[in-house]
Amino acid sequence: MDWKPIKKHPGSEGEPRLAAYGDLARDFSWNAARAELDGLPGGRGINIAHEAIDRHAAGPHADRTAIRWLSKNGLTRDFSYAELAGLTARFANALTGLGLDRGDRVFTLLGRVPELYVTALGSLKGGYVFSPLFSAFGPEPIQARMSIGGAKVLVTTPQLYRRKVAPVRSALPELEHVLLVGEDEREDIEGAAGFEDLTGAASDRFEIPPTDPEDMALLHFTSGTTGRPKGAIHVHQAVVAHHITGQYALDLRAGDIFWCTADPGWVTGTSYGIISPLTNGATVIVDEEEFDAERWYGVLQAQRVTVWYTAPTAVRMLMKLGVEAPRRFDLSALRFVSSVGEPLNPEGVVWGVEALGLPIHDNWWQTETGGIMIANYASMDIRPGSMGRPMPGIEAAIIERTDDTVKVIDEPDTDGELVLKAGWPSMFRGYLDEEERYRKCFADGWYLTGDLARRDKDGYFWFVGRADDVIKSAGHLIGPFEVESALMEHEAVAEAGVIGKPDPVIGESVKAFVALKPGFTPDDALRRSLLGHARKRLGAAVAPREIEFLPGLPKTRSGKIMRRLLKARELGLPEGDTSTLENSQ
Ligand code: ATP
Ligand code: MG
After folding, report:
1. Of 167, 255, 328, 478, which residue has the fewest beta carbons closer than 10 angstroms?
2. 3-state SS string for 312-362
């Protein structure tokens, strides 16, 4: 590709947290990273909530705002580290008072309201396992996840309960307590108690019990992009990775105003929407409202956000509206912008420079990895379209796999499966109730990610596609991302999703689904123009044979294009698990 590298951003004040990638990658040790955190007093182990809240609340930054909440109806509420320490202590005491045992599962089904954050950190404090559900899920996905997770406590609102939990309550025999946030109409809800009542009556002092680094802390369900979501288990010492990756990959510093736009119902919204910024002493912006371009630019301006972590799907939606919109806002406080969740098209990286005055730093990770694994750092030039280089402490490789043998491919620029040397602190410790599936994720000491990538000679990794999505056509292996990115360069294209269609002659043929920017007409002339552009960029063997216009592409609620659904619909096959499909109800 002929995208020019983007020089590391000259405008940022101070040295980036990761100043010299090469040196650090060589000298890094997880023990040294662990030493940046406190551990529980008296050597009683390590607890995420202590590192995120209590140690700051006991120090000079006790009064700094930990969470600034922007409500749907225009309210702003600040919670200092000290206040959050008290609120989460109350919640931990309340749970203990309910007679819970260590390791019991506490689920939330809430919008982005303060109680969600108090529940997350209070549960961790008490030694309970926190599992967040996205509030837009319907009854089925809620029931499935709570059953797999053995939910004992659910924190939700009466309205959400009535609409989504009541219909499936009889299938949740383990659910004992329902803590209700907001207005009180709970007579008919089994095991109900008021969140306010319980926490209000509890003490705001709580001593965190000894916490083993390997104690289970978080249960996160994957996005369901490729099939039925899996429940990934994470432990307390994952916080070492949350903390250090926040510094290195997001350039987080104490005092930053940090906005992660992901909902805590997805791993990003917990690892980086709660834990990492707090362990690093930042102020977290929580916006209760959903995406809206004007609102988002307004939040960046009004809150003087310094570090912003978002997703390619949001970037594409902003791009759709052009560069004039952001230019009407004062975004001068922004220092670092990054994105995750899907490949970030080179077009998006460059758009950042034009629209925000800053490039967008792509990084790559999974629910299973618990934290960022490969990233573009503030201190490094960006190669648009690349996901960057492995985190210090992370060994990544490209392999060829045949049954159970793994061969590491050393030659640069060769496609293969992306693998990580097992053993970093935030690596998942299991898929709940799916031991066999977990074991199959490892071979020869490597964690097998299921994603295909290549590494260039300078150690930058380039995403090719998910193993499930890759297209085999006339002897070529075609990554949908490459084709989608080429289509995205066309002025008419807002989004593109590419699949392989069975073809008797060439194995699979490439078909593209395209959604257009406002003002363009889906007609044959445009189709020809797109096909011509794609052929010129990719060559006839890789360019799509067919282009279909759609008003929008099917996506997960976390914003990922669901290519498997495009394919199933194209081939008239069953759609499979659609519990995480956006607009599915
Ligand atoms: P499921 O495993 O249920 O199919 P999922 O893999 O989408 O869903 P997540 O763990 O949320 O669930 O997403 C991780 C995946 O997202 C990665 O394996 C990768 O395919 C994709 N991804 C994340 N970040 C990037 C990135 N920067 N570039 C390319 N792909 C990315
Ligand atoms: Mg996955």
Report:
1. 328
2. HHHHHHHHHCCCHHHHCCCCCCCCEEEECCCCCCHHHHHHHHHHHCCCEEE
Are the C-beta atoms of residues 473 and 541 closer than 8 Å to each other?
A: yes
* 3-state SS assignment for residue 133: strand
**Is the distance from the beta carbon of residue 466 to the nearest atom of ligand 1 less than 6 Å?**
yes
Instruction: Among the bound ligands, name the one nearest to the CA of residue 229.
Output: 1
CA of 420 to the centre of ligand 1 (A): 15
Gyration radius (Cα) of the chain, Å: 23
Instruction: Name which of 564, 529, 555, 565 is nearest 544 in CA terms.
Output: 529
Alpha carbons 284 and 273: distance in angstroms, whole number: 7
Mutation test residue for ligand 1: of 451, 452, 470, 485, the one with most atoms within 8 Å of CB: 451
- Quote the pTM value: 0.94
Look at the block and give the residue holding tokens 């410790």.
429
- Residue located via tokens 């005491």: 93
3-state secondary structure 495-521: EEEEEEEEECCCEEEEEEEEEECCCCC
The whole-angstrom separation of Cα 230 and Cα 437 is 10
Contact 542, 482 (CB under 8 A): yes
Which residue has 């920017």 as its token pair?
517
Q: Are the C-beta atoms of 314 and 286 separated by less than 8 Å?
A: no
pLDDT digits (tens, 9 = 90+) for 526-585: 999 999 999 999 998 899 999 999 999 999 988 899 999 999 999 999 999 898 898 754
Question: Which residues, other chains included, contact 336 with Cβ-Cβ below 8 Å and sequence gap of 6+?
Answer: 9, 12, 250, 251, 306, 307, 308, 358, 361, 378
Q: Coil, helix or strand for 106?
A: strand
3-state secondary structure of 224: coil
Ligand 1 pocket test target in 266, 310, 366, 565 with most atoms within 8 Å of CB: 366
* Cβ 333 vs Cβ 352: under 8 Å: no
229 close to ligand 1 (CB < 6 Angstrom):
yes
445 CA distance to ligand 1 middle (Å): 21
Name the more confident of 238 and 228: 238
The Cα–Cα gap between 341 and 365 comes to: 8
Report the percentage of the chain scoring pLDDT > 70. 98
Rounded Cα distance between 150 and 497, Å, is 36
Determine the residue type at 205.
R
**Neighbour tally for 409: CB within 10 Å:** 16
CB contact at 8 A, 163 and 136: no
Q: Is the dihedral of CA 6, 9, 10, 11 positive or negative?
A: positive
